[in-house]
Each structure stands twice: as structure tokens, then as C-alpha cells.
Amino acid sequence: MTDPQLVALAQQGDLPAFEELVKKYQREIYGLAYRLVLDAEEAKDLAQQAFMQAFVHIRGFRQQAQFRTWLFRIAINQCYNYLKNKKKFGDPVDCEEFVLVGEDSSPEEDLVSQEEHRRLYAALTHLPAKQRAVITLKLEQGLSYEEISRVLGGTAGAARVNYCQAIKTLKKYLQNEDEHEVAVRSYPKMVARVSRR
User: Fold this and answer.
1) What is the pLDDT of residues 167-196, one digit of tens each?
2) What architecture is domain 95-195?
């Protein structure tokens, strides 16, 4: 079933239809929350809260935007409220959650890749929450600037400015690290790949 069909059923009180939407988006919502609050347990709680809010308010969802976009906005608002109340910016990152290993890579290449990702995700902790959100939505979720503006509010131009500022800040931070060879080497590849989108 498509999202609009599942949403329509959920709006009529069909709990299994809403559970299908939860199954479909739970990993994305958890990942988004984790990137923003940088705490695995809090991210689980915030993802659950986001789904609870979505369930409570689903009858008011008019399907003018995609359900996924609407859900991202709810999750980000939950995270912003958490960060505001707890003032938890820049907590340490659990790097093992982010290990991305190529199928055909050698153990040496895997180690370099893990170190590159560790440095990149550690650098993300230095960004303000809104810039972390833009980076996450653009790079991990593949949203366009227009979609990001619908999730975060504001305009597509503002989303693009936040994204560009976040990239500049990341680049500056990675280049200023004392031991930055790996991070700086991996960074241009990532930026070149992303900037073409």
C-alpha cells in the first residue's frame, strides 16, 4: 500500500495501517533523531515520541505534503525541544553506530574508512542543531532544498544557505584538527559527491 492509502486508513482509526507507517519510517526517524541529539537512548525516546505525536495528530494531516516530510518535521521539533530543554549540544558520538564498510574493501581500507567516518561525525557535533538537521536531511535522507524547507520551515534558499554554511564549518573544523590527514582527505570526496545533487 502507498503512504496516502495507509494515511487515509490511519485517519479512520485503522491501527494496523499506522503500524505499517511506523515500520516503514522508524529507522529513518531514529537516524535523524540520533544525528541531532547524539545520544542513542534519547534518540529512541524521541523517535517514539514523534510517532506518538503523528498518531495523535494524523487526522489533521491534509496530505498536502508527503507523510514522510510531515513526520520528519514532527521528529525535528521533538529534537529541538529536547535540545532546548536539556541544552545538550555537542555530546560525544558513539562512532561504532556509523561504521560504513565496503563489501569489496580490504581490512586496511576498512580501518581508514572507519576513521574517516569517525572524524566526520565527530565534526558534526560542532554544528548548531539546525545545520545538523539540514546536513542529515540532505545527505542521509536525500531531500531536496524545497523538501528540507517544508520540514524545517523557511525557504528553499534558506535551507541551501544553512547547508552551505554547515559544509564550510565542517571543512574548517576538519582542516583545523591537529591530526587531520584522514579527515581532510575524505572530505573533498564527500563534498564533491554531495555538491552535484
Assistant:
1) 888 888 777 764 444 443 444 444 444 433
2) Orthogonal Bundle (1.10)
pTM check: above 0.90: no
Fold of the CATH domain 3-86: Rna Polymerase Sigma Factor; Chain: A (1.10.1740)
- Burial zone of 139 (CB within 10 Å; 0-12 exposed, 13-18 middle, 19+ buried): middle
pLDDT tens, position by position, 30-50: 999 998 888 889 999 999 999
> Counting every residue, how long is the chain?
197
Nearest to 191 by CA among 116, 122, 130, 125: 116
Boundaries of every domain in the chain: 3-86, 95-195
Say how far apart CA 176 and CA 108 lie, in whole Å. 25
Residue for grid cell 529513518: 28
